[in-house]
Design brief:
The chain is an all-alpha fold. The protein starts with 8 loop residues before the first helix and ends with a helix.
Amino acid sequence: MIREDPNNLDVLESRARIYLRQQNLKYAQADVSAILAMDSSRIVALELFGDLGFATNQTRQSRDAWTKCMALDPTYVPCRLKMAQLYHVVTEFEKSAVLVDRVLELDPKNPEAHFLKGLLMRDALGDTLMAISWFQKAIDIAPDYTEALDMCGVLYSAIKSPLAIGYFNRLIELNPLNRMSLYNRGMYYLGKEDWNGALED
């Protein structure tokens, strides 16, 4: 398709996204730069340009791209959510919370937004139970959301709740070769002095 129409921005964006997923950053950068040279206000290209900055630890590039993206289209969720994640990473929790709350207004069933809200409850407020409730909401929306399942398992394990086992079992069911989940389940059993369970894992 690109050979037939090398200036088709939709196709270039799709290819750049594939390159990004494959960690082929040089080719992704070439496509995104070409798109922005033709149209500097292209929303998806700005999102991808921010992704490239994040992947190469150039967070200022990410911030600038996603800020411009949000200004051009205040209802475009991906840029707003990624900006919230960036603020969380750099521990600017209040800014992250404002953005994630707006994402939840725009897209109440966004599992990543619920997950990030859980991270903020854990990291900004130190509220384990509130964090778990947000992670569980993410799982209710996306039952195979492995990061949320893992967080619930780890946090329940930390407070020695038997509910942890259900989450670890689900992770192992999704990926039987998941060594970290087997290890976490084994450590939970060890903490409960269930030697047989610990030895099996």
